[in-house]
Amino acid sequence: MSTTTASSGPGAQLWTILGLAVAAQTAGSIVSQGVYTLVPVFREAFGLSQAEAALAVTVMNGGQILSLFTLGRLIDRHGERAVVAIAMAGMGLMAMAGAMLATGYASLLLALLLLGVCYAAVQPGGTRAILRWFPTRHRGLATGFRQAAVPLGTALAAMLLPLLAASGGWRAALLAQGGIGIAGGLFFWAFYREGDLAESRKAPPLPLRQLLAVLGRDPAFWPVLGAGIAMSSFQFTFTASAIAFMAERFGLGLVAAAALFAIVQFTGIPSRALLPMVVDRLWPGRREHCLGWVMALCTALTALYALLPAETPAWALYPVLALLGIFGIGWFPLYLLQIAEIAPKNAIATTVGFSSTLCMIAMALAPLAFGAVVDAGGYGLAWGLLVLPVGLLVPRLLRLPAREGREPQDQEPVRPAAGS
To answer: Domains in the chain, please, with CATH?
Structure first.
């Protein structure tokens, strides 16, 4: 029985799959992104400096960098149901281990490292599920909704975890994260099914060198991967630096600057769902071109933002920040779909894991480099260097050919060497 129609859109079965993917991503984000919201709690509980407390986030993200590619290969080999469910339960167990067994900050960091290692399965697993269940015309909608679950989970964590920490200490917050992670894993295991979509897992996983050779045959792969790295650097550096920049440049207090920055998040969350849906409906087969225009707008808006005079009133920042939220956060589903659709059918999660690893390395290094440039040459130079690679990649994306109804490519068989 068909699960979609051209007129009505995704059917009941696909909405169920999407709901499971969104629930898993939301639960994973509460556990992982919740660490960000607990940094002030750790600082107070352990008597840390700001830099020492921020190590909690750095270590957790480092865990993801270590395991993204490996977990992607496991998902392609064994299916998303088992790997994502076990990894999410593992996240919960690591959070609980930190709550019950950590005797100091160092042992807590070890638990957070392992938590990050487990969280790395959620992104490639969820992307693979959507790509394998949803037809091309509905993938933008599905991926957008799933990616909107990341900031949604972060917002829920910000409302829940500091409150629990204030009443029961940081261990209570970690126990809550642990329960949510385990519940999310059990929920995904109980209700998600792969069915006959899992047949390609029987093919052996491609070695990285051969995978890159296959991916490189597609002229869109390297420009799209570069776009993801450049935009990841932009988004997370902007997130880390915008409040301090506005407070210093426009003479705002930190609270007022933070309130202004919230506009970026408020417009960014729905944009992750709406932007890819609009692109797939109005410009099917042109995601690369639309990503290029999104990056061009980010470059222009950032230049405007950086060049606004110091006497600019706060109200004049509203439209600039709102547009930066739409294009500076809403870009990600467009990129993620393109990377996944370029991948061989039996290496979707591996490809997403590989590309996400490079993006996370950029996310970790770019804010440090931005701060160093600010110290040496000021904000103007720093903003310019940040958006330079974004702008340079725009023409490459706009020159790529349009592709209607693209599906992940079949892996070509590996021919044995002569004489073997």
So the answer is: 12-193 (1.20.1250.20), 209-406 (1.20.1250.20)
